[in-house]
Write a structure and sequence with these properties.
mainly alpha; Farnesyl Diphosphate Synthase; two-stranded antiparallel ribbon
Length: 358
């Protein structure tokens, strides 16, 4: 069955039409893929359904949105967006792959206010009375759910109706995005294992690879590549994307400690509980007085640790870093050869992505 995105043109603004088009594209694609998967063996039905639900159950659709405006900045207001919607939507499948694997690695219990994939599979295992440890089955199955989303991303990207040369250029960018995200994730895992060897500079490098690259920078460049051009905007997109992506991760660090779980969909304090070497925690350790350093080294009550982090001035410093990066991103836009509507949209996205509460 062919994809059936709504017949919108490229003038998507902040009115939800782009998100609706992305969701429609994803739903149609996933329906067909799940039907094909289930036809192989009926036992695959809950497996495919979990992958589908992991993609469709919420999310900000930031990556497709940045890709759209990266494309729009080069293509201009004339071309219809329908032919490139599958490419934009593919980034949401890539994102689902990363989140599912990340949750397994972190042992997270919830995502977007719902049980994580490995928790769902473990519960299914127990309910069905199967043999073997439920948590092992859950983790193994979730890795495969993530892998499936990654393969589905490739399949959906291939449905973009653009010239072969443009699709190949976008594919190169897409592959670089995936390598950088995986490299950043490995460094993130390594940092958990040797937090005392981590520095603020290295934490920011991880943020650039793990978050900035596949959240902002590469989606922008990916969108531009889908036009068959984009060289003129590449430098501006790179500077804008790196700045916004780093600010996005810094905000995520703050929300991980001080965010409201009802809004973030995740428990607060996990980073403090595990001692993850985020920029926020590394700055707090650097700024802490001897008594505060002693308490940070032996965390007991997460609320008390959060209070110490705030008292050191680390929160204010991270807020200032976010503001500085947003200023740098807006400066990069000033020199970008894009029209006013694209510049305004990217400016608004820079603020929305970094001043969020979830």
């Amino acid at each position: 069955m062919p994809l059936a995105p709504p017949p919108q043109r490229s003038t998507y603004l902040g009115d939800g039409r782009l998100r609706a088009a992305i969701d429609t594209t994803l739903a149609a694609f996933l329906r067909d893929e799940c039907t094909t998967l289930e036809s192989t063996d009926h036992a695959l039905r809950p497996f495919g359904a979990l992958a589908r639900d992991s993609v469709l159950a919420g999310g900000k659709r930031l990556r497709p949105t940045f890709a759209h405006w990266g494309w729009r900045g080069v293509a201009g207001p004339g071309p219809a967006v329908d032919p490139v919607l599958p490419a934009f939507a593919a980034l949401e499948l890539l994102h689902a792959f990363a989140l599912i694997h990340d949750d397994v690695m972190d042992g997270s219990l919830t995502r977007r206010g719902r049980p994580t994939a490995h928790q769902v599979l473990a519960a299914q295992h127990t309910h069905a009375g199967r043999v073997g440890p439920a948590d092992r089955f859950g983790s193994a199955g979730a890795v495969l759910v993530g892998d499936l989303c990654l393969v589905w991303a490739d399949r959906l990207l291939a449905k973009a109706d653009v010239p072969a040369a443009a699709l190949l250029a976008a594919r190169r960018c897409y592959d670089e995005m995936r390598v950088e995200a995986i490299a950043g994730q490995y460094l993130d895992v390594l940092g958990d294992a040797e937090p005392d060897r981590w520095s603020v500079d290295r934490a920011l490098r991880v943020a650039r690879l793990k978050t900035a690259s596949y959240t902002v920078t590469r989606p922008l460049l990916f969108g531009a590549a889908l036009t068959g051009g984009g060289a003129a905007v590449a430098e501006s997109y790179q500077r804008y994307g790196d700045a916004v992506g780093e600010a996005f991760q810094l905000r995520d660090d703050l929300l991980g400690v001080f965010g409201d779980p009802a809004e973030t969909g995740k428990p607060a304090g996990d980073d403090l509980r595990t001692g993850k070497p985020t920029v926020l925690l590394l700055l707090a350790r650097r700024l802490a007085n001897p008594a505060q350093q002693a308490e940070l080294a032996r965390p007991r009550e997460i609320d008390r640790v959060a209070e110490i982090v705030a008292d050191t001035g680390a929160v204010a410093m991270v807020d200032a870093m976010i503001d500085n990066r947003i200023s740098a991103a807006l400066t990069a836009l000033d020199g970008a050869p894009v029209d006013g509507s694209t510049r305004a949209a990217l400016g608004a996205l820079a603020v929305a992505a970094t001043q969020r509460r979830s």
